[in-house]
Design brief:
Elements (H helix, E strand, L loop, with lengths): L30 H13 L16 H4 L6 H10 L7 E2 L2 E2 L8 E5 L2 E8 L7 H14 L2 E6 L14 E7 L5 E7 H17 L8 H11 L9 H19 L2
Length: 243
Amino acid sequence: MAKYGIEAFDELPSNNKRRRLFSLLDTMGDDKTTLFKKLDEKLGDFKPNEIPVPKNIENVNGFSHRWDLDIFFKVIKKSLDDNSSKTENGREVAYVGDIDTFIPFYGHFLFVDEKTSTNGLKLTQLSSYLELANRFDTTIWCLMGPTPGANSVIDFNRIYKLCVIKSFGRYELFQGNLKEVLDYFHLWLNECRENPATDYFPYGETAQEILDNVERMENYKDLSYEVLMNDYFRYMDNVEKGN
């Protein structure tokens, strides 16, 4: 009889399987070392990897709960006539990605995509970042290197690679230790403060209005009706245009 789950570790042909995350309490003493020693003895190459959680994250169990991006990717694929990854201007149209960190400061915006190595950079992703930076005048960092604090102690001398993407296709490649990365980030903050891009739109008031309204069910419109009406108006528009 075939084995499944943890009983099948000794029969797995490779480690190219989807991994799952489990959260553990950061207990006192040597509990973690003992646990990993036992897991190493039992599972060998298939033992879990430790992934550090930032200390300011209070809801750890919710921190790693992410939507499967394939949900959106399949909808994009379905919307394409031939159900394939069509290309436009040399890159695939069917692409869904994420950005790890978003920092707004004095009307300027910094997006940070964290990679453990340069191998994490992808052509379609970089093309999308270049378009985002160019069309909305934002700054995007592709920060490549190990996660700081993975071993509980932050090593400020560890070397990182940094690709800085700006508008008009401009980009720069840097290399430096973590302290220098943070110094460069501080430089970006100073530039934002010296050249603010703020306006007078009541963002804070509108945000508070949203927070007040999301708890009241009567403020929610029916999504199926919204889609239906949108399809109807698109149909009527096509009829008027003779399509």
